[in-house]
From TrEMBL, chains A, B:
Principal subcellular localisation of the protein: cytoplasm
Pfam families membership: Lactamase_B, RMMBL, RNase_J_b_CASP, RNase_J_C
Location(s), subcellular: Cytoplasm
Domain of life assignment: Bacteria
Native source organism of the sequence: Collinsella intestinalis
Catalytic residues identified in the record: D200, H373
NCBIfam families in alphabetical order: MG423
Metallo-beta-lactamase domain location: 24-220
Full protein name: Ribonuclease J
Cofactor(s) listed in the protein's UniProt record: Zn(2+); Ca(2+)
Top-level class of the enzyme under EC nomenclature: hydrolase
Length: 559, 559
């Protein structure tokens, strides 16, 4: 099962820099001698434990350290967890490295790069069946199906052995654009010999076969047909096949289509220009043109399927949208599933809509959404087609990677040949034999305003503390001559007790007592101890009276 | 369908004070002439929009204002969303009002009240079939089934008409304790005439019939049988029927049972003392007695099914538990479903367990949990049995209440007789005829440390702002004589840029420039304007350099 053209003195290093600790920031470096290619450069959205963080990137120090080897960046598809780190990475690489991807993916990336003022990126359009040589890498792309058109997997041939990286995929036999997964190519790779398979684990705990995207269309059509008023459909704006089905259903019901939401407007424009979304110009209306159109002749295609408070759907539901507002009698279809962590936000939007008197469809009521990721039977089929000697589950949380590893064993890959590793760990392949390699610098990099990278974990802990308990500032004037504390000034935010004259008097008294008792050294060398004593005395005073411990910011000034 | 013993000059007011804006803080006042009874007194747990809040209570001002009428408090069952406001309410009522509930519910309440040092509450134990007269209310209790034993519904007869309040229920034909829902009583009420039905809406969007609790037992037994090492089962500690089935399964597998987690220890003790949980003393071990017991002879029953970071399960998974730690080869069963908002926390625990090499069972893998609430077919059966003239869906979010209202219409209740109302709205019944009444004071009351009630919405907004952007304090000494600002002192928390000498120098310069330009009035009456100018100058300086807007706390002191 090993490859033909291997040389025993060459090692291929496979280094996942992201994507193995959750769904997000996918990035894998493949390094062989003096050549390196990168597969994907994605971001992750911050969660509740990362308050105030804008974006999370993989730490790609290793890529920058080996910049001289980097021959190209392959992007498997246009989702942000595969593309979102690209603007940052390209800036660090001075935009020198070519990017290989499908036409639609490059179209989406182009828009994003222009927001970062990155001009003339070195785009290299490829498609399923394309071959590219990058240093000692011979790369063949293959078509897959996913919740975005133009999704590709890669077959990497190197002197040390071969790798199939699936990208994100499902095996949809009836994709909307007719571009089926390339089973022939996968079978061919299997025959040629796949040393290592890296495969999408997102749905590895889900039994069965993921339903085809084509099954969503009839449900949406049915809902639109039954609607008496306007229909609002919220969906991911990159899910062009979904949008196509919404447009087709609207057309069948003689309804015009209004598009709203920034990314929905951008992505539908790009997809139409590139020929991925087919909708008649005459069937589209601008949001400000709808006056006079009967309510049962409209479908509004919008962002907001994740309950984002600033999205078009939330704003229309709350009466905060410029041109449209949702009202009683409207039908709303949430054509998506909440990303983990967004459940409550989505439910809040659904409740607002229910209160308005809308008829709301979500996944629990009708088949208005299907997953874009392969379930267990598809994952097994991928293993059966490629027949890998070694297997590394990728793209998932710990529980997904392990469930996928178990499937690998079921499919005959020996347990010792299955690698469930962490970001920054590496595999080394030599003569088609794969072993664990050394780890490289890895981790997460936070984007927080203009700052990229050095957000201290303490900052995040402080933010969580501030959120749960608020803060009180105390300014103490140290009278160094008389060796006592003068007037104290208090100021608080996010605390539920009032900081009024009574508080100031009582807290001052408590602090003065503590300072008198402590016999402090009133000199410049003693101010740290005094500052600490002020903080502790105030914290205890507040605890005794309110049973809360806000963050105390003591400022001591010498006079 | 109206009642027999009605007098046309009497009005029954039905006033839900909580429970209609989500799952939580259930409380309804029934007021008839000079008599009032309260059904349930629950709390709600805070969500992401209420950072730092400990608990949320319904605003029960109306109850206190009518304290002289209050004849009794009925608690339908022992879940905190039905009992948790009771300690606060009883304190406000000086513990004078009798509490009617089942033995187990009173047992759970007693423990909670003793934590609040509320002694000798006026407990009145009732059960299905009990009759109680409270002023002009003639009340009959009926047994239901729910995810806790001893759940009751109530049939309230008044001179103005009759009401059935279901409490939380499902229609479990094979409950673990053999106490089936009292269909006979419900049919009898239906025959006597139910003017108003108030029914649990939690699962009103779920088609079909909720599975019986008895179906969970075999799945848990199967998982324990197949386990090679220890088995940890996390569940709600009040779910005594679930715990019974876990204990029975452990017994069948010749495994001893260890109980851990504070509420799990308390509730199993109470339930055993009161005869609700039947487990042989010899089969129970203390956590510190397990040395020497083979791993395949142990089942640990623990809290933590919601991913709570301080729960037994999380601590055992993280190696922070006093006596137990989970390791490779252990089996963990999450015998619960995440409460909305807890999905991500639960998933994080599942991932930690997967990383340890545990075999994790959750609802998606096996039938290790079923809901305690009625699905659509059961809700329809409740409507069919009670045949109400009027219907008010209760206990649910907006989307649930509306879905339940739609079921009511399907079952023949005219749309105009169905009331989907808000907390604090009221219904008025006279001669069995129900109309909308006037609204009363209502809303939410926050418990934040020792403070109850007056947490300002601004406090919560400030906490969210602090969490997302952090804060910077600036202390400015105003030299009133020279009419200028002296040294500035900066201090920050939760900001990702360093507050170092460079920052202090540059920010000071920016502030000084703004003050010089502003030509401020350096007198006591001018300090507010100077404070604002300092804040704005610092905020702009930080925005220009970092593109973030932390909260600025300016303190100006005159010297």
């Amino acid at each position: 099962m090993a490859t033909n053209n291997k040389k025993s003195n060459v090692t291929l290093k496979v280094i996942p820099l992201g994507g193995l600790d959750g769904i997000g920031k996918n990035m894998t470096a493949f390094e062989c001698g003096d050549d390196m290619v990168l597969v994907d450069a994605g971001l992750m959205f911050p969660d509740d434990n990362q308050p105030g963080i804008d974006l999370v990137l993989p730490d790609y120090t290793y890529v920058l350290e080996n910049e001289h080897k980097l021959r190209g960046i392959i992007i498997t598809h246009g989702h942000e967890d595969h593309t979102g780190a690209l603007p940052y990475l390209l800036q660090d690489l001075n935009n020198k490295v070519p990017i290989f991807s499908s036409k639609l993916t490059l179209g989406f990336i182009e828009g994003k790069l222009s927001e970062f003022r990155i001009r003339a990126p070195k785009f290299r359009e490829v498609k399923g069946g394309s071959h590219v040589n990058l240093g000692c890498f011979s790369i063949e792309f293959f078509s897959t199906t996913h919740s975005i058109p133009g999704a590709l997997g890669v077959f990497l041939k190197t002197p040390a052995g071969t790798v199939v990286h699936t990208g994100d995929f499902k095996l949809d036999q009836t994709p909307i654009d007719g571009v089926t997964p390339d089973y022939g190519a996968l079978a061919k790779f299997g025959k040629q010999g796949v040393d290592l398979l890296m495969s999408d684990s997102t749905n590895a705990t889900v039994p069965g076969f993921t339903k085809s995207e084509a099954e969503v269309g009839p449900s949406i059509l049915h809902a639109i047909k039954n609607a008496k008023g306007r229909v609002f459909v919220a969906s991911f704006s990159s899910h062009i096949h979904r949008l196509q089905q919404i447009c087709d259903a609207a057309k069948k019901c003689n309804r015009k289509i209004v598009v709203t939401g920034r990314s929905m407007l951008t992505n539908t424009r790009v997809a139409r220009e590139l020929g991925y979304l087919k909708v008649d110009e005459n069937d589209l209306l601008d949001a400000f043109e709808i006056n006079g159109i009967p309510e049962d002749k409209l479908v509004v295609m919008c962002t907001g399927s994740q309950g984002e408070p600033l999205s078009a759907l939330s704003r229309m539901a709350n009466g905060e949208h410029k041109t449209l507002s949702i009202h009683e009698g409207d039908t709303v279809i949430i054509s998506a599933t909440p990303v983990p962590g967004n459940e409550k936000a989505v439910q809040q939007v659904v409740n607002s809509l229910a209160k308005l008197g809308c008829d709301v469809y979500d996944k629990s009521r009708a088949l208005v959404h299907v997953s874009g990721h392969a379930s267990q039977e598809e994952l097994k089929l991928m293993l059966a087609l490629t027949k890998p000697s070694y297997f590394m589950p990728v793209h998932g949380e710990a529980v997904h990677l392990r469930a996928h590893a178990a499937l690998g064993q079921k499919m005959g890959v020996p347990a010792k040949n299955i690698f469930v590793i962490d970001n920054g760990d590496s595999l080394e392949m030599r003569d088609g034999i794969v072993k664990r390699g050394r780890s490289v610098e890895s981790g997460v990099v936070y984007v927080d305003g203009l700052r990229i990278g050095d957000t201290d974990p303490i900052v995040l802990r402080d933010r969580q503390k501030l959120a749960s308990d608020g803060m009180v500032t105390v300014v103490a004037m140290l009278d160094m001559k008389r060796k006592k504390i003068g007037d104290l000034e208090f100021s608080g935010r996010g605390v539920s007790f009032p900081i009024d004259d009574q508080f100031s008097a009582d807290a001052s008294a408590a602090i003065q007592r503590a300072i008198e008792k402590g016999k402090f050294n009133f000199s410049s060398s003693g101010t740290d101890a005094i500052r600490k004593a002020v903080r502790d005395a105030l914290s205890n005073y507040i605890w005794n009276n309110n049973r809360t411990r806000p963050m105390i910011i003591p400022v001591v000034m010498e006079v």
